[in-house]
Each structure stands twice: as C-alpha cells, then as structure tokens.
Amino acid sequence: MDGKGFAKLAKDTKLIDKKLTATDVDLTFNKIKERTARRITFDQFLTGLEQFAAKKQVDVGAVQSSVAASQGPILRGTAAKNVRLHDDTSTYTGVYAQGGPSNVDEDTSLNNLLDRSDADVRGVKTGGAASVAAVTHGVAGIHLVEESKGTARPATKKGKKKAGGAAASESAAQSAPASSLEQVFTTYAAGREMDGKTFAKLCKDCKLTNKVCTNTDIDLIFARNKERTARKITYQQFVACVTDVAKKRGETFEADSEKILAKGGPVFSGTQAEAVRFHDDKDQYTGVYAQGGPSTVGGTGGIRDISELCDRTGADVRGVKH
Description:
By secondary structure, this protein is mainly alpha-helical. It is 42% helix and 1% strand. The chain has 13 helices and 2 strands; from the N terminus they run H-H-H-H-H-H-H-H-E-H-H-E-H-H-H. Helix 2 crosses helix 3, helix 9 crosses helix 10 and helix 11 packs across helix 12.
C-alpha cells in the first residue's frame, strides 16, 4: 500500500480527528515503511494501526475494528443538478414531444441513399422534374440559356479595370520629386522636428539601408546627432545625420541627397485585396440580387414605420392565427 492509499483508509474509517491529524498519518507511514521503499507490507500496516491507537490513546482492537468494519474505499463525486427542460419529458415540444427525430428508417439500403433517376452529364435531371436551381431562377424571373461549347463568352472589362485601379493606387503612393532637403524633411516630419521612427522610414524609402549601413546603424546615427535628452532632431541635425549615413555607405553627401530629393516624400504601402469573382462580377449574381438586391425602403414590401414590423392580427395564446 502506498502513502496515498494509507491516508485514504484513515480518512474513510474516520480515524482522523484532533488527536490523529492527516499530518500524523503521513509521519506514521514514513516511520513504518522501509527507508528506500514507497509502499508498505501487511505487517507494516498492522504496525501503523498500533501507532494510530497509541496516538489516539485507545485500544488497538478498537482501531482494528474500525478498519475491519470498512467495506472498501469510499468513492466520491459531484452529482449533476436537475435540468428541468432536459430531465422532465413533459416539457418537450415539437418533434421531441413525439419521441424525437429518427435517423433509422425501415429500409436503409443503398437504393434509398442515391438518386438513380436519369440526368445529363452536368447532373441536370431529364425526367421532367425541375431542379432546385431551375425553381429558384424561375421565382426570381431569370431565364437560363444553355451555351454551346463552340460559343465563347464575351470578355469582360474586369481585368482592365483591376489593372487600371492598381496602377492608379501605385502612382498615387509615389510623391513628386522635391526641390530641397528641407522640403523633404518637412514632408516626412509634418513639422519642424523629426523622430527616430520617421528618420528610419526616410532611409528605408530612399533605399539608403544595405548590408554596409543597416537599420541598427541608422538608429545609432540618429542617437549620436540628437540632443542628449531630446527625442527628435531639427533640420540641421538631420543634415548631419544624412552626412554620417553617406560616410557609412562610402558615398558622398550629394549622392545621397539626390536619392532623398528624388523620393520627394513618404511612400505608403498596403495590401490590395484580390478579386472575388462571385462578389465583384455582377454577371454571376442570381436570385433577387440579380435584380438589384433586396430593399428595405420604399417600393413594394418597403417598411415605413415600426407598425409594419409586427403582425397584430388575432391569434390564440399559442400564437396560432384564427
């Protein structure tokens, strides 16, 4: 028996009290077991009961009688509470009041699982029964026309519009070249001072960073030229930073200045969403959306006030109309 089982036996037989605590039970187990063992034998178990009796100041026979009266370990658990709408079948409604839905039929052969009626190669039924798609389009007033294999669909201008839109957004992101470094500084800083994040973006946009002049070097140059307690730099300190960047790159100040002037201003980049055919191509719309979509204002079925949202006609207590 291990220490956990020994402690549970003492608890189940109600041997634990103020004189014999749970800590005393653990200490007794450690005394009677072998030094390197983790379990005790039956003889060691009897020795433990004798120590229990000595600790409780009672006869050994009384302790042994309490243990013998136990019929085994007592297992405890949390009982679930009663849920009325689940346990009380008299509250069931609908199909559940009749016994619930069934997924077992009288004939569950493969013939009942497959529709073997005639259909063409596209799966459209040819036996005279209208398909679900045909009924849906018929209600919406849409007439489908089969296309022959040799007939090519007319090309849409979707691709051209998409390409044009991408080109327009790309050109809008580019700024016009600037005439002076101070103009670029003002455009990036949006004021008279520039912080380290903006200076790093300027260097990245102007492609002044490479393996020789890394992003870490840009941050160190900015920290070296700003005031000790300041967090931003002025235009004169910006010119000193550009000079240090040019030295780090092994180029002249004029060459790096030309790159900055050519950029003109900050470059804003973003992710452009891909085209979704069933959303962007209105030729793919079906049902009421092909007619312009549902409407909640004006026209037939339009809602003018809150009184049209409720059905106030007569009904019994269960909501069934008379």
